[in-house]
């Protein structure tokens, strides 16, 4: 295998996934993954540019950052690229007024968005909010539009909580796509536009950046499609079969964020 | 356009969809569509063979027939081809023990099926039963199986109730297909096997049969793929855009079942 020095050559910027890399979500707010608090601190003390790039859409950035800070992480809102604010920008640019099928925890991100007389639907990981009644309402709104627009915050298949695997927004996005005969616009990973906006925030080119995530498709495959390199951590939703994925091969597999940061600091911070 | 006499030549058997053709479901059991009670009676008095072919899977056949009889229809259980009994036959033949994600109204059809230690999932139009919790449970059962089998009673996108369009089982089938990376086996229209079982029951060949339905894909497209002819009624879930559907063209469009039966009796019952 190619030596790490070669695989990491020229990396100036690092995008970090949050859930499954920094911490595992779950009851009581979740728990930091061993070594990740220190790893983030060391990374931020290095010459590498760092940006957090998450598909979290059950919480507002404020809530997410508050939770992470309580777990000991050095992180602020301005360092986080997340789907809800990106979606709000799109909604404003295009004069779209959404019907929101989202989790209550993220609703505050849409506070200054006009939601009267909706001309599109925004779907996010609503968790228990994915009731038949709520799904049917979103469906009816789309069916009444001449040009139905469906915006999905991510398209994950599932994620892992302490209690087991949980259906993610992608499944419900597919349900609405099929019922309405539309194709959703995905805001969040693996959308190239989303990765690019995270890179713009730290002024790093894709070929000089590396993504670190636990999702072989959304993080690793998405970043590579965008011209970045990507490492997969063996934490969060990682499954051993990911290392033999038929379509996506990471630029490296590491046990956790701490190992990734060791390698980055050893081979890039010269 | 080809004259009706030509389009209907050689028809010996008629398959009738129920919801949206005979009646509109909804609060209080629903309401017969104007002229349909008499149309069914006239059809059954003719020389044409008649079979009801429905994807109804919120109710047992007994319940459905009881409701239709109260609305005035001449119909008995033995005349109805429906997905739940067809699925039970498949489950028994293949030794499958289902986890059931179905409506309580149809549960009695599965009374003699072993549902312990499930090795497959059966999904049907569960209506309000499509909660996040129930969907997640079905998802988790599939993810734990080495060879996940998902059987879906129909794959309709939506149906119409008095209160508006309602999401059908197909949307939720797609959600599970995407989340689990499986392809569902569909029992019900538009599965050719399902149409064929309805035709076998009245001993009519596909080229001598015509389907009458309100669903351009499930009824019309499905029947035509099976070698039958098909009329679409402008009742139930019919939408004007169906008459310009990019893929499916019915052998005729009629205002309602009464008009379809007028034409059939005029041009075939000689």
From TrEMBL, chains A, B:
Keywords: Cytoplasm, Hydrolase, Magnesium, Metal-binding, Nucleus. Its cofactor is Mg(2+). Its EC number is 3.6.1.1. GO terms for molecular function: inorganic diphosphate phosphatase activity; metal ion binding; phosphatase activity; protein homodimerization activity. Its main location: cytoplasm. It catalyses: diphosphate + H2O = 2 phosphate + H(+). It is found in: Cytoplasm; Nucleus. CDD domains: HAD_PPase (cd07509). GO terms for biological process: phosphate-containing compound metabolic process. GO terms for cellular component: cytosol; nuclear speck. Phosphatase that hydrolyzes imidodiphosphate, 3-phosphohistidine and 6-phospholysine. Has broad substrate specificity and can also hydrolyze inorganic diphosphate, but with lower efficiency. PANTHER family: 4-NITROPHENYLPHOSPHATASE-RELATED, PHOSPHOLYSINE PHOSPHOHISTIDINE INORGANIC PYROPHOSPHATE PHOSPHATASE. Belongs to the HAD-like hydrolase superfamily. This is Phospholysine phosphohistidine inorganic pyrophosphate phosphatase. The lineage of its organism: Eukaryota, Metazoa, Chordata, Craniata, Vertebrata. The gene is Lhpp.
């Amino acid at each position: 295998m190619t030596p790490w020095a070669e695989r990491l050559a020229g990396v100036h910027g690092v995008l970090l996934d949050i859930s499954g890399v920094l911490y595992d979500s779950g009851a009581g707010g979740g728990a930091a993954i061993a070594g990740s608090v220190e790893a983030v601190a060391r990374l931020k003390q290095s010459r590498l540019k760092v940006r957090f790039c998450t598909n979290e859409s059950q919480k507002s950035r404020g809530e997410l950052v508050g939770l992470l800070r309580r777990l000991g992480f050095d992180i602020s809102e301005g360092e986080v690229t997340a789907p809800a604010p990106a979606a709000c920008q799109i909604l404003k640019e295009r004069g779209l007024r959404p019907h929101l099928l989202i989790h209550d925890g993220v609703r505050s991100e849409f506070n200054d968005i006009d939601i009267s007389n909706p001309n599109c639907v925004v779907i996010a990981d609503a968790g228990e909010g994915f009731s038949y009644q709520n799904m049917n309402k979103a469906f009816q709104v789309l069916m009444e539009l001449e040009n139905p627009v469906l915006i999905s915050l991510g398209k994950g298949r599932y994620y892992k909580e302490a209690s087991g695997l949980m259906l993610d927004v992608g499944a419900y996005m597919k349900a609405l796509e099929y019922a309405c005969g539309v194709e959703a616009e995905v805001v969040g990973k693996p959308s190239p536009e989303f990765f690019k906006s995270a890179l713009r925030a730290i002024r790093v080119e894709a070929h000089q950046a590396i993504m670190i995530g636990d999702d072989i498709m959304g993080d690793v495959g998405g970043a590579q499609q965008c011209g970045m390199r990507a490492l997969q951590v063996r934490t969060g939703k990682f499954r051993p079969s990911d290392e033999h994925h038929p379509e996506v091969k990471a630029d490296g597999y590491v046990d956790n964020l701490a190992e990734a940061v060791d390698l980055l600091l050893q081979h890039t911070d010269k």
